[in-house]
Design goal:
By secondary structure, the protein is α+β, with helices and mostly antiparallel strands. It has one domain: Cytochrome p450 (Orthogonal Bundle). Helices cover 50% and strands 9% of the residues. It contains 17 helices and eleven strands. Strands 1-2-7-4 form a four-stranded mixed beta sheet, with helices on one face. It has a three-stranded antiparallel beta sheet with strand order 3-11-8. The protein starts with a helix and ends with a helix.
Length: 495
């Protein structure tokens, strides 16, 4: 009897090995997307020159709209066509609803429990629901309309203080950062920093947020080659631990400050109410993680997008002139632009879209990760494959857009519907950015107010350098400097 049992176990073991061998062989025989020649161990890492979106574009020109890359121990796929994007985020949307996990970055995402980093599932869906209902729903956006108006007016006053004697050279990016930071901070925590007594505190907070944003774009070599940890290669992880701790201290202070407040529309108050009824789920960590993502995603990106839009306008005086004429006609010279004017400011809204097309803040979106094997464009994509969507390349594809490198706001006309898979500044699918409505409102109001209230010229008449630097986000190499002078009636508009 023992001999029979032993032979049965051996047979089952051999059969299991044979099945695994056949399955693995079948997977290997499946056709992966085209790929450049690789180097042992490092794969294609040597090909990844900055900016990455241009490298990805060059590879797609040579190998096709879908390319597979081996990044150390990780497999990645880059797609660069609307049909493949559609396939990724319709048929395979749930498969690609995860984000890649890098061990070093867990210190910046409360161990991968934040809205941006959490795996797809019940927890992520709940965070997304809270963000959508408490920040980004039409009702909540309308509730905070005065916040946006107030902060744009503060920006105008700040500029007027700098250049009220005539044309003065100004750097706009720091002002855009303050604007976006204050708007999101007031929505999330009901607190305004810049312009009040907390300026130094705000400066340190924003520096930490900026560092955190930068290190979400840095991949630790030990994440790609885990064996390096055995040799002490943990520099990036230690830096992430330090940034994460300092950011946590600031966020905890905000939570504690609001814990005893019983009123206010800020999101943190609503979360603390939920904490009282469900303390085991709505921990301080969950609350801080949601605040962190909204502050990170809503400040740097908005400021960067505004800087690109102003650069585009000043390099195209005819566009600036059309925007000014539209504002003069639809709003006039006796009051400031208001969000209720948007339906009548079609050209300004088209400029916003066109600037996002040419210079998307996330040129290859935020990477996705496959939770299961699937096919894209007829090619086999294994489980745990990173997906990069080269939105920058799609936005400049001459097969999809007429004169794709030219700034032409008219292409977004009222009767010219643009397919979502062709225009991807906020992503697509389940993990698309929920803040697109807020971003467009802030952009339109800010750009309209700056055009309405000031005269703008390029420094020495020289064309603005549009060279970009990019990892996950794409900003200008050279910060934008412009000559600024207030319009004669600005004091009336600001009164």
């Amino acid at each position: 009897m023992d001999d029979l049992l032993l032979r049965s176990l051996v047979f089952i073991f051999i059969l299991t090995l044979a099945i695994k061998f056949l399955l693995n062989r079948r997977k290997q025989e499946r056709k992966l997307p085209p790929s450049p020649p690789a180097i042992p161990i490092i794969g294609h890492l040597h090909l990844l020159k900055q900016p990455l979106h241009r490298t990805f574009h060059s590879l797609s020109q040579k190998y096709g709209a879908i390319v597979s890359l081996r990044l150390g121990s990780r497999l990645a796929v880059v797609v660069s066509s609307p049909s493949l994007v559609e396939e990724c985020f319709t048929k395979n949307d749930i498969v690609f609803a995860n984000r890649p996990f890098f061990p070093s970055a867990r210190h910046l995402s409360y161990n991968q429990t934040t809205l941006g980093a959490a795996p797809y599932g019940d927890h992520w869906r709940n965070l997304r629901r809270i963000a959508s209902s408490e920040i980004f729903s039409p009702t909540r956006l309308n509730m905070f309309v005065d916040v946006r108006k107030d902060e744009v007016k503060s920006l105008l006053r700040r500029l007027y203080h700098v250049c009220n004697k005539g044309f003065v050279k100004v750097k706009l990016r720091p002002m855009f950062m303050d604007l976006s930071f204050n708007i999101v901070m007031r929505m999330v925590a009901g607190k305004r920093y810049y312009g009040l007594e907390q300026v130094e505190e705000a400066r340190r907070f924003r520096e930490i947020l900026t560092e955190c944003f930068q290190y979400t774009e840095v991949s630790d070599p030990a994440d790609i080659f885990p064996i390096l940890k055995a040799f002490g290669f943990t520099g990036v992880e230690k830096k992430c631990m330090s940034i994460g701790h300092r950011l946590d201290v600031f966020l905890q202070e905000l939570v504690d400050e609001h814990r005893n407040k019983k009123d206010g529309n800020a999101m943190i108050n609503r979360l603390l109410d939920l904490q009282q009824s469900h303390p085991q789920y709505y921990t301080d960590e969950i609350i801080k993680g949601l605040m962190q993502v909204l502050l990170l995603a809503g400040t740097e990106t908005t400021a960067t997008t505004l800087e690109w839009a102003m650069s585009n306008m000043l390099n195209h005086p005819d566009v600036l002139k059309k925007d000014k004429e539209e504002l003069d006609t639809q709003v006039g010279q006796h009051r400031l632009i208001d969000e209720s004017d948007y339906p009548n400011l079609q050209y300004l809204q088209r400029l916003t879209c066109e600037s996002l097309r040419l210079y998307p803040t996330a040129p290859y979106l935020v990477p996705h990760l496959s939770s299961d094997e699937c096919t894209i464009g007829g090619y086999y994509v294994p489980e745990d494959t990173m997906l990069f969507v080269n939105a920058w390349s799609i936005h400049r594809d001459p097969k999809l857009w007429d004169d794709p490198t030219k700034l032409k706001p008219e292409r977004f006309g009222a009767h010219q519907k643009v397919e979502s898979s062709k225009f991807l500044p906020f992503g697509l699918g389940r993990r698309a950015c929920p803040g697109d409505g807020l971003a467009k409102k802030v952009m339109t109001l800010t750009l309209g107010a700056l055009i309405q209230c000031f005269c703008w010229e390029r420094v020495n008449g020289d064309e603005i350098d549009m060279t970009e630097k990019a990892k996950i986000s794409m900003s200008k190499v050279e910060q934008l400097e412009l000559m600024c002078k207030p319009q004669p009636n600005l004091e009336i508009l600001l009164s």
